[in-house]
Specification:
It contains eleven helices and 14 strands. With 352 residues, the protein is an alpha/beta fold. It has two domains: 63 residues, Alpha-Beta Plaits; 265 residues, Alpha-Beta Barrel (TIM Barrel).
């Protein structure tokens, strides 16, 4: 349930409400808005008397949260969640600015990664993506460079100033990946790996949670709830296409999921047009559709030589194609009342 307080509630009255709830063995989540403060109650709600709560000073009304996801629900937060990415970057996702993350599917070597980082940064990307550990359908396919790949990502961050996002596949990898990464990505195949979700929830790193291949929106939000329940409130949701009967595209981008999620949750919503379309020529149209529908950001695969990429080359953009896409993304963002700044003040240093 959530407790809506009266306008202008005093700090003492708010403290007494929180103390009352926590004395019953529940946790509280306080969300402050311009006019009202909301206190979310997390736990066995049967221990609380609704009548007793309404008698407390400063309580305007008590509203039950009927959805299975509590912390992720729109009711639990007055404002949209805005997440700062990186310790030294001023890049924030979840606000008015549409943030573009870009880079190779896999880190394949130092030169290709640094070349890609410089190129996407110059074109307007704010975050560098790259896989050090890769979940592949075939056990014989390239699985990533592991910690060596993480070290190269850290070098690329030092060179460009861009925060880095990379995938973590196993609870045993969380501590290692968190030492290097600014954002921990949970891939589509691990959306319901509840042990992994709980583990990243204990780490103070933003989490990029991708929707599963056949996951419903409710299942995606319940997966986010696992992370939130461990105390990590910095979760970003990512629509990356779902599996349908259609074979013309790698997956089917559920563009309707974007406004649905924006209505259901306060968490930022991103879109991966590369995996959704599975073909390089589809990436730009899908990216523009995502921004028009309200996405807070994009995560795009870019490679210096897609034909020879070790993974996902068919859906990766060349440098020139990515550079051509970015002005279009910016134009659509501005058309729907958003911005798409080219680079942050913290990353305006030379990238040569």
């Amino acid at each position: 349930m959530i407790i809506v307080t009266t306008a202008g509630i005093t700090p003492d009255a708010l403290d007494r409400i929180i103390e009352h709830v926590e004395s019953a063995g529940l946790r509280t989540h306080v969300s402050r808005g311009e006019q009202r403060t909301i206190v979310g109650c997390i736990g066995e709600e049967g221990r609380l008397s609704e009548h007793g709560l309404t008698q407390l000073e400063g309580v305007e009304r008590v509203i039950p949260v009927l959805k299975p996801y509590k912390l992720a629900s729109r009711e639990f937060s007055v404002a949209n969640t805005a997440i700062r990415l990186g310790d030294t970057s001023d890049t924030t996702i979840g606000g008015r600015n549409v943030v573009v993350m870009a880079g190779p599917c896999s880190v394949e070597g130092r030169d290709m990664l640094l070349d890609t980082a410089r190129a996407v940064h110059a074109a307007g990307a704010r975050v560098l993506r790259g896989g050090a550990f890769k979940p592949r359908s075939s056990p014989y396919a390239f699985q990533g460079m592991g910690e060596a790949g993480l070290e190269l990502l850290a070098e690329a961050r030092a060179t460009t100033g861009m925060p880095i996002v990379t995938e973590v596949m196993d609870p045993r990898q969380v501590e290692l990946v968190a030492r290097y990464a600014d954002v921990l990505q949970i891939g589509a195949r691990n959306m319901q790996n509840f042990s992994l979700l709980s583990e990243v929830g204990k780490v103070q790193r933003p989490v990029l949670l991708k929707r599963g291949l056949s996951g419903t929106i409710t299942e995606l939000l319940m997966a986010a709830e696992y992370v939130l329940a461990q105390g990590n409130g910095d979760v970003m949701l990512c629509e990356r296409g779902i599996r349908t009967y259609e074979t013309a595209t790698r997956n089917t981008m559920d563009v309707a999921a974007i406004p649905v999620l924006k209505r259901e949750t306060h968490l930022p919503v991103l879109v991966d047009p590369s995996h959704a379309g599975g073909r390089a020529h589809l990436v730009t149209p899908l990216a523009l559709a995502a921004v028009a529908a309200g996405a807070d950001g994009l995560i795009v695969e870019v490679h210096p030589d897609p034909k020879n990429a070790m993974s996902d080359g068919e859906q990766s953009l060349e440098f020139s194609a990515f550079a051509a896409m970015m002005p279009q993304v910016r134009a659509v963002a501005e058309a729907v009342g958003r911005t798409c700044e080219w680079r942050s003040n913290a990353t305006a240093r030379a990238t040569a």
